[in-house]
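Risk register update: the risk of archive-format incompatibility is retired. Evidence:
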Amino acid sequence: MKDKIINKAKEMFLRLGFKSITMDDIACEMCISKKTIYKYFSNKDILIEESVQMVHKEIHETINTIVAQNFNAIEENFEIRRMFKEMFKSAESSPIYQLKKHYPEIYEKVLSMQVSVCEECFRDNIIKGINEGLYRKDLDIENYVKFYYTLIFNINENTMLEKDAQELELKALEYHIRAMASLAGIVELEKQLETQILNH
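Archived output:
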């Protein structure tokens, strides 16, 4: 039951926002009593935190699945972008923006988990791209990880609408890859951007 509540809450929070959804709304949607929810979660903050952790876990698993598929480094980045778009397609306002604004303590708590996963993912991608000859060999890997990470988090923390955040993230990804790409990498990047336009 606990997992069912987290799942439903997660879906409702993403779709309609952390602030606007109440425990009553979740109970009503699930056709259970509010008392049942309070049996597992003493308050809404705890439910939000567990829901966000579940989203974090799903993101991590999906990234691992994509990485295991042996795309080249640039393709992999675009696949991960597509996955994010798919995962958050029902979200109207950016989940990170909302959390930071309305639940800063929860935001700080989950952010530290997200940071380490993102940095590791970005770092692995850069190393992979260098080995494939798609990124330049002389890159300062740690700084590029930090640059990209700062860009992405700034966009998410300060952009209210999820679709605007996704547009900007795509531009940030192009910017990031152009800054690192070898000639072969530029060719691959242009190919991916063209595919994006066709699928838009």
